[in-house]
Amino acid sequence: xxxxxxxxxxxxxxxxxxxxxxxxxxxxxxxxxxxxxxxxxxxxxxxxxxxxxxxxxxxxxxxxxxxxxxxxxxxxxxxxxxxxxxxxxxxxxxxxxxxxxxxxxxxxxxxxxxxxxxxxxxxxxxxxxxxxxxxxxxxxxxxxxxxxxxxxxxxxxxxxxxxxxxxxxxxxxxxxxxxxxxxxxxxxxxxxxxxxxxxxxxxxxxxxxxxxxxxxxxxxxxxxxxxxxxxxxxxxxxx
Length: 239
Known about the structure:
Strand content: 25-35%
CATH class: Alpha Beta
Oligomer: single chain
CATH architecture: 3-Layer(aba) Sandwich
Shape: globular
Number of helices: 6
Largest sheet: 8 strands, mixed
Radius of gyration: 16 Å
Structural class: alpha/beta
Helix content: 25-40%
CATH topology: Rossmann fold
Strand order of the largest sheet: 1-2-4-3-5-6-7-8
Number of strands: 10
Distance between the termini: 19 Å
Number of domains: 1
Order of helices and strands: EEEHEHHEHEEHEEEH
């Protein structure tokens, strides 16, 4: 097994975007596509590492770019400024997500007819929106994601299977939002799961997260448990 990576360029109007595609070149047949949608700072090392890990598991991993080639920051204030326009215009966000998904599916090593998406933080909101708007995905996984639904009308039914992995002590998503999401997904007839991890804050899968005062902290047990949940879910929806 040898995991290979390459940049993949795509455009939205006059904005150049660049994702990272990862695959195992020991397997000649096209592999199910799993898109990785980044947190609010942009596509960075964390998402690229996740795409490579997915390739080692037998998928075609694609770390997407929603902000533009080379746009990435670890500064919270700068990250919020990058994210906010997309929270304000969820239709534009959906268009860019679809472009990213198509860019991944166009790769020769990917089987776009079997596809899922995993999103972290802001990316968790993104993948939930993909399910809400009817993207052609077999499953989506929101990992310490945001739950606020888009203001515009979405599909009455959700066909995509949904897995939500949530830190119960995440101050950005209080328990009432978790209950609201469950009610929303139930009303849409979705096949959904929500896993809540006790004594766990936001960004629990990111080893570099260490700011408990802001409610952001890595949690190794929740990271390990959520990783196993993701593996089981992808095996169910894509194999």
